[in-house]
Amino acid sequence: MPGLREASEKERVIEKVLFGLEFANSTLVCYEYVRNFNSIGKTVSPVVQIVDDDPQICQLIGEILQDSHYEVIEAGEVASAWHQFRADQPDISIVDIGLPGEEDGIDLLRRIHQEDREYPVLMISGQASAQQAVEAMKLGAFDYLGKPINLEKLQLLISRSLETIRRHQSLERLKASLQTEYGFDRLLGSSPIFRQLIEVARRVADIPAASVLLTGESGTGKELFARAIHWSSAHAHDPFVEINCAAVPETLLEAELFGFEKGAFTDAKQRKLGLLEEANGGSFFLDEVGELSLNLQAKLLRVLEERSFRRLGGTRLIHVQFRLIVATNANLEELVAHKRFREDLYYRLNVIHLHLPPLRERGADLIEIARHFLIGICRDFGRAPVALSPQAEQRLLRHHWPGNVRELRNILQRAVVLADGDVLEEGHLTSSLRTVSSEEPTESPTPPAIPSLSIPPEGLSFEEVERSLIQSALRRTRGNVTAAARLLKMSREKLRYRIHKFGLRVLELSDDLKEELQNA
Q1: What's the CA angle centered on 328, arms 325 and 329, to 5 degrees?
Q2: Phi, psi of 428 (to 5 degrees)
Q3: Nearest Cα to 472, choosing from 508, 504, 519?
Q4: Residue 353: which H helix or E strand, with range?
Q5: 66, 71, 141, 311: which could join 259 in a potential S-S bond, CB 3.0 to 4.6 Å?
Q6: What angle do CA 90, 92, 95 make, to 5 degrees?
Q7: pLDDT tens, residue by residue, 88-104
Q8: Are 430 and 395 in contact (CB under 8 A)?
Q9: Three-state secondary structure along 300-348?
């Protein structure tokens, strides 16, 4: 009996869902199976609308499609077909061009696409002229078939059109998800300086041709801004490609950017597309642009000016169009002044300049961000939510935050681990904070003794003294730039600049210094 067969089929599927015989650890799949069995044994099938005034054509196509598990609805002229389209919302329409009445199949196609531009319509006809077929395709018909209809080809076209729609819908859902995940609404902060920055960035997102320069200290959110600009633009469905110039050796960076042809060098066993090529049509994010060598700076400038390049070992000119977004925590103007960054490239990049303020300058934004982090941290750690006490909030506001948002997140993670209750107190934070704000009452420390320096009669080179001090600091810290900067009472960025200035790259120090570091 059909009723019994359908009931047992439903029970079989639900049993698999509940006991995980085929769908273990797949909540989404289970949900979809239960949802689709909204009536006993009934699954959701694509609905195909056939619009033709010939009943035999409708019957022939309908029987073939029903055998392939499609649901079929029929109409014989434009008015009833349009009403059916609005009421039943089919997945695809097969429309005869030569429909009777004042409006024909072309008019119905035009109506449908005014309602939904992406909706698939297959046009059929036994008497249509080539001009009508061309017009139908120009109006957005998915395809055209002449009569007598090749039923096998018709089924193939229906399958392809539905698959195209599914992919389009999946891409739209993914785009919406990414816009939610990386859009401007995810950037927390209500301080005037930050909201003004967001407003400018939103405007920039609508101008895809404008290059964007993002500056600010490490950890201020430059990468988040780059993603928000891309995912809020009209090209959000196009690629977003990124690379950190400081994370890739210079010898490999050129191949990563431009790609190479097979045989371009010893290990080039096959062609590789460069990141500039992969970013075509979308956005290319170049982080730590101040680390680019002068040679690569010149090549990047040429790409920006000519919108074309050649792969390594290649002869064919590759044309590209993308929005360039660059970020750096270095002072590019200072690098230009010291001939370490090309002036012409700097002006080419500095079309739209967004400087991200450090966390210590954003006022109450810090507390808003901290509360947001605590929600995620507690969720990740699998513990009940915790709140900040007023004293803890004041302690956070007094801190200087040299590491900005990254430092804040790390400190909160440690504090959550140390806390037993549901409130973070000042004591949970104090042990994690590296420095004490000058606003806190503290005893004045005894200033460190400054070594006495004497200048010989013949004089000395101040740069050599500075170079020697930096080498000494690097020896003591075994090449740790951050620790050396702390010894020299200067910022890490300033020390890195001087290391580059004197050619003292940490891994490329003088032979005697390298030997000392290795033997230390």
Answers
A1: 150
A2: -70, -25
A3: 504
A4: strand 352-355
A5: 311
A6: 110
A7: 999 999 999 988 888 99
A8: yes
A9: HHHHHHHCEECCECCCCCEECCCEEEEEECCCHHHHHHCCCCCHHHHHH
List 241's β-bridge partners, or say none.
284
Instruction: Say how far apart CA 60 and CA 56 lie, in whole Å.
Output: 6
Global pTM value:
0.57
Q: Which tokens belong to 218?
A: 């490490």
* Residue whose structure tokens are 């006991």: 19
The pair of three-digit structure tokens given for residue 481, joined into one six-digit string:
């730039």
Q: What span, in angstroms and rounded, lies between the C-alpha atoms of 197 and 104?
A: 54
Written in H, E and C, the secondary structure of 105-141 is HHHHHHHHHHHCCCCCEEEEECCCCHHHHHHHHHCCC
Let me know: does 311 contact 274? Beta carbons within 8 Å.
yes
Contact 378, 386 (CB under 8 A): yes
Q: What's the pLDDT tens digit per position in 346-397?
A: 999 999 999 999 999 998 899 999 999 999 999 998 889 999 999 999 999 9
- Which range has the worst mean pLDDT, 4-8, 137-141, 397-401, 514-518? 4-8
Please tell me the distance from the alpha carbon of residue 112 to that of residue 103, in angstroms, as a whole number: 13
Token readout for 40 is 């006993």
Cβ–Cβ under 8 Å, residues 238 and 282: yes
| CA atoms of 153 and 150, how far apart (whole Å) | 5
Residue 2 has pLDDT above 50, yes or no: no
Counting every residue, how long is the chain?
520
Is 109:132 a contact under the CB 8 Å cutoff?
Answer: no
Residue 180 is predicted with a pLDDT of 61
Peptide bond just before 148 cis, omega within 30 deg:
yes
DSSP for 157-226 reads HHHHHHHHHHHHHHHHHHHHHHHHHHSGGGS---SHHHHHHHHHHHHHHT-TT--EEEE-STTS-HHHHH
List, in order, residues 6 or more apart from 173 with CB less than 8 Å away.
none
DSSP 273: E
**Cα atoms in the 13 Å half-sphere on the side-chain side of 92:** 26
Give CA angle at 46 (41, 49), nearest 5°: 125
Rounded Cα gap, residues 147 and 170, in angstroms? 34
**In this structure, are strands 318-319 and 308-309 parallel, antiparallel, or unpaired?**
antiparallel
What is the number of H-type helices and E-type strands within the chain?
Answer: 22, 16
375: tokens are: 């929600």
Backbone angles phi, psi at 345, to 5 degrees: -70, -40
Contact call for residues 418 and 407 (beta carbons, < 8 A): no
**Residues 6 or more apart from 417 whose CB is under 8 A from it?**
381
| Nearest-angstrom CA–CA distance, 411 and 247 | 25
